[in-house]
Design brief:
Distance between the termini of chain B: 55 Å
Helix content of chain A: 25-40%
CATH class of the largest domain in chain A: Alpha Beta
CATH architecture of the largest domain in chain A: 2-Layer Sandwich
Strand order of the largest sheet of chain A: 3-5-1-14-11-12-13
Number of strands of chain A: 29
Largest sheet of chain A: 7 strands, mixed
Largest interface: A-B, 71 and 73 residues
Structural class of chain B: alpha+beta
Strand content of chain A: 25-35%
Shape of chain A: flat
Largest sheet of chain B: 5 strands, mixed
CATH class of the largest domain in chain B: Alpha Beta
Order of helices and strands of chain B: HHEEHEEEHHHH
CATH topology of the largest domain in chain B: Ubiquitin-like (UB roll)
Number of domains of chain A: 3
Radius of gyration of chain B: 19 Å
Number of helices of chain B: 7
CATH superfamily of the largest domain in chain B: Beta-grasp domain
Oligomer: heterodimer
Strand content of chain B: 5-15%
CATH topology of the largest domain in chain A: Aldehyde Oxidoreductase, domain 4
Distance between the termini of chain A: 72 Å
CATH superfamily of the largest domain in chain A: Aldehyde oxidase/xanthine dehydrogenase, molybdopterin binding domain
Radius of gyration of chain A: 28 Å
Strand order of the largest sheet of chain B: 2-1-5-3-4
Helix content of chain B: 25-40%
Chain lengths: 712, 204
């Protein structure tokens, strides 16, 4: 039985060392080719015509003028007469042409008649959505009524976190070529191995006839798994244009309107407990929308799942808006924001430091020990003891400073993955798998695992991903990639090494199980002088390469990966109470992640998640127009993302301990994207002395909250 | 909103400084220089239909047929297969399409190709082994990498004009570019590292 276990911490030479990403120079020099950069010969450009109405029935579509235009090669009607449109931005027709300007002219020449129907696009006021709200049914645990009666203190509050979009910088789309019975598909996707099957189902083409390739993807965040209408329609345009390749990418406005959102969550929360901070009762009325299909259902009470008495009521609201897609840690940032804000308000109600109240209740979570350790560490990093003050007790000037905290959790178990490692007689090594690198550093992690296993430097490994002809590896979602690919690559590479050792053993006169691959040599464990260089060893293969596969099966826990982590973040903000402007001073993140393969890219993941939380807490919001039913800010001027000067200082602590390391590799992308919004919102409440119910905490909301307190 | 309170108390920074420190308003980018040049020498009327133009890109003269309405960005990407500059917002907000024209940083989605004739256009493809590229790698100033070419170009030009930047200068000078993955901490470090390397090179 081969030994797949990770080498002990102190014996690792590649894993655990901060390492530059393998594709860093390609990306930073502009040489990296994203699918949207491809210009194959004969390329046609395609453009969608989309619905300006949020709710309408298509009465007629006249594409004759578009079809007649010079340079137009194909026009397709997507929403035939009779189709009921349920959100603005719905694809009505699509044009392929020799150039993009011609395609845009042709789109403008298409005439569509609509019967406009009434729409609902705003959900923040539940009383105004009428029958669009569907109750999910009440959930009760314990005896919440009695617990609230018995409680020494009860706090209540209202909270709202709006719909935001993914705003991937590379929009959704692809280059695609359908020639004869074969399709060449260059998507922008998180699912290289499986997206071909998804497309094939829609087009009734066997997946085996669809060749998917993608070297780089410009952001996904959960929104790029399916082949989507743009993939399907671009393929058909290609076929109708004689098999010429077609490029169809969403323009920014369409991207922000239909390519996926994170659902909103609005909540009325009541917390009951003791004056020492112990929480005994929870009551939540929540509603959410992610578009026409309703919305997510955030898990309440979040993290503190063992509150003994609780009552939950949730409604999903259907809106005439573009639909939800997985967004980095689906439902968790919303649940964290609402729960941690409510606990912060409970702490304020009983006049206690929220850090104490969170610590008091970690026993209500399933990771008390981790949260205790992380809360203490984060408090240390932000100097909580020195900088914290009671809510609103922030001096007499107009610039108020405050601290806040948030917590999060995630699973992140490794996904199903197959990998193939080949050792060639010239000593070169290839690792192949149908995975993808979203910018998380997957490519580099794969190379590091193989290099560690073979005792070689990272530069000796050729990592080949982004092709569905390689062994099948899972889609990158749910923080499952790093656990999955590291295990399959470890196993494939151990298997390949064992084969090599079998061939090398006799010439060294050492039993195979007494050999090891270290520092570019194959040597006897007990006598390092008895050795061959890697090159010499591989020459023993003659003309035959060694190719071995490895598999990660998530149903079989082999100890290489695990799931289930805790995370804590704390924020330090300054608020100008006269302008309502918030300035981030500092955000600190403490994250446990099991065995860390590449601390450099791991830290980048957390830094990035913290910055995304700054966006969502301070400025980011999709704004719907009640009258027209359209997205008002479907551009990057008014769909606000933080810039380099908006984020303050960020400090990350990777919770690397021997105990965490023993658990194996755990995905990181999502858990660190959870606690930040709560931390920032609570810091603002701490600074100005009053809860701003809705994030983002825009200046007008801050001023309104201050006014409401003044008038109260 | 009126107040007689001293805005500089108690936290040691002024209201004006506070507001200036916020938001993406402090952009170092400017296209004004182009407008002035356009007024001085109005280009000949071109189009409708294809116009044959000549662009000077990375020191090389390139002939290309474009419609007068096509941007420099689309011309680079769709006609010249120069795809380092990315089309993200397409409205002069995000900086992913950053190039320089006559040594000034420009959003190439806001410039028509026909207006860029007779000017020195530099793209990321032309900067070669500039220390800023390796500094981005060393400091992991990239994740998905789609904003990275724009950031690298903006950083390179920023350093051309500000060879001795402070940390605060970097935060202000690079505020014309947006990243979704959140790589700003690495970018700040990368620009400072490259500044140090460039100075070292000159002194050596």
């Amino acid at each position: 039985m081969p030994n797949y276990n990770w080498p002990p911490m102190d014996q690792r030479r590649v894993i655990g060392k901060p390492t530059n990403r393998l594709d860093g120079v390609a990306k930073a020099s502009g040489k990296a080719k994203y699918s949207s950069d491809l210009n194959p010969p004969g390329l046609l450009q395609a453009v969608f015509l989309t619905s300006p109405h949020a709710h309408a029935r298509v009465k007629s579509v006249d594409v004759s003028a578009a079809k007649a235009m010079k340079g137009v090669t194909a026009v397709r009607v997507i929403s035939a007469p009779g189709t009921e449109i349920q959100w603005a931005g719905t694809e009505i027709a699509v044009v392929a042409a020799e150039t993009e300007p011609i395609a845009r002219d042709a789109v403008r020449a298409i005439k569509v008649d609509y019967e406009v129907l009434p729409h609902v696009v705003q959900e923040s006021d539940l009383a105004k959505v009428g029958t669009r709200a569907k109750a999910a049914g009440e959930q009760v645990t314990g005896d919440p009524d009695q617990a609230f009666k018995d409680a020494e203190a009860v706090s209540d509050g209202e909270y709202g976190i709006p719909v935001i979009t993914h705003c991937c910088l590379e929009p959704h789309g692809q280059v695609i070529e359908w020639k004869g019975d074969k399709i060449n598909f260059w998507p922008s996707t998180q699912a290289v191995s499986v997206i071909g099957g998804d497309l094939g189902k829609a087009l009734e083409v066997p997946a085996a006839n669809i060749h998917v390739r993608m070297d780089y993807v410009g952001g996904g965040f959960g929104s790029k798994f399916a082949s989507d209408r743009w993939g399907i329609e671009a393929a058909r345009l290609s076929k109708e244009s004689g098999g010429r390749p077609v490029k169809l990418y969403l323009d920014r406005a369409t991207e922000l309107t239909i390519a996926g959102v994170r659902p909103s969550t609005y909540a009325k929360i009541k917390i009951g407990g003791k004056k020492d901070g112990t929480i005994t009762a929870w009551d939540s009325k929540t509603w959410a929308s992610g578009g026409f299909g309703g919305g997510g259902m955030p898990p309440f009470p979040y993290v503190f799942t063992k509150i003994p008495n609780f009552r939950l009521n949730h409604s999903a609201v259907s809106l005439n808006c573009g639909g939800a897609r997985a967004w980095r840690a689906p439902n968790n940032p919303q649940a964290s924001f609402v729960t941690c804000s409510a606990i912060d308000d409970f702490a304020a109600k009983i006049g206690k430091d929220p850090l104490e109240v969170f610590l008091k209740n970690t026993g209500l979570s399933v990771r008390a020990e981790a949260y205790n350790r992380q809360l203490a560490k984060a408090a240390d990093m932000i100097d909580w003891k020195k900088n914290w003050h009671a809510r609103g007790d922030s001096g007499s000037g107009n610039i108020k400073r405050g601290l806040g905290l948030g917590v999060g959790t995630w699973n992140g178990l490794g996904h199903a993955s197959h990998a193939r490692t080949t050792i060639h007689p010239d000593g070169s090594v290839e690792v192949e798998l149908g995975s993808q690198d979203l910018g998380t550093g997957t490519r580099t992690v794969i190379g590091m695992v193989a290099a560690e296993t073979l005792g070689l430097p990272l530069s000796a490994i050729k990592v080949k991903i982004g092709d569905n002809e390689y062994p099948v590896s899972g889609p990158s979602g749910g923080s499952t990639t790093v656990g999955g690919v590291s295990a399959s690559v470890r196993k494939a590479t151990v298997n390949a090494l064992d084969k090599l050792l079998e061939q090398v053993g006799p010439s060294l006169n050492v039993p195979v199980d007494q050999l090891e691959a270290v520092d570019g040599r194959i040597r006897a464990k007990t006598n390092p002088d008895k050795a061959l260089s890697w090159q010499q060893a591989c020459q023993k293969l003659g003309v035959n390469s060694i190719t071995q596969e490895g598999e990660n099966d998530p149903k079989r826990n082999e100890g290489l990966n695990a799931g289930g982590v805790a995370g804590v973040q704390m924020a330090d903000v300054s608020v100008d109470t006269e302008t309502g402007i918030v300035r981030m001073n500092k955000l600190v993140a403490v994250q446990d992640i099991g065995l860390v393969v590449n601390p450099k890219t791991a830290e980048s993941q957390i830094l990035g998640a913290c910055i995304m939380s700054c966006c969502a807490a301070l400025m980011e919001e999709r704004v719907m127009d009640r009258v027209t039913g359209r997205v008002l800010n479907a551009d990057m001027e008014f769909y606000k993302l933080a810039g380099i000067n908006d984020i303050g200082e960020i400090e990350v602590h990777l919770d690397i301990t021997p105990e965490n390391d023993k658990r194996g590799i755990i995905g990181l992308g999502e858990p660190c994207a959870v606690p930040g919004v709560a931390a920032i919102a609570n810091a603002v409440a701490n600074a100005i002395g009053v809860r701003v119910p809705n994030v983002p905490v825009l200046p007008d909301r801050i001023l309104a909250a201050l006014n409401s307190r003044r008038n109260a | 909103m009126s107040s007689k309170k001293d805005p500089t108390k108690p936290s040691g920074f002024s209201r004006r400084g506070f507001i200036q420190g916020i938001g993406i308003g402090g952009s170092a980018l400017t296209t004004g220089v182009l407008e002035k040049e356009a007024l001085a020498a109005p280009p000949p009327v071109a189009g409708p239909g294809l116009a044959s133009i000549t662009l000077s890109i990375n020191g090389k003269s390139q002939k290309v047929e474009v419609e007068p309405r096509e941007t420099l960005l689309d011309t680079l990407r769709n006609h010249l297969d120069m795809t380092a500059a990315k089309r993200v917002c397409d409205r002069g907000t995000c900086g992913a399409c950053t190039v320089t024209i006559n040594n000034r940083v420009v959003y190439s989605c806001t410039v028509l190709a026909i207006d860029a004739q007779g000017k020195d256009i530099q793209t990321l493809e032309g900067i070669g082994a500039h220390p800023i590229v390796q500094a981005f790698v060393n400091n992991d100033a990239q994740q998905c990498g789609y904003c990275t070419p724009g950031f690298v170009m903006a950083s390179k030009s920023f350093l051309d004009h500000h060879p001795n930047p402070t940390y605060e200068d970097v935060k202000r000078g690079l505020s014309g570019n947006l990243c979704r993955c959140g790589t700003y901490v690495g970018v700040r470090k990368a620009v400072l590292e490259a500044a140090g390397k460039l100075k070292g090179g000159k002194n050596a």
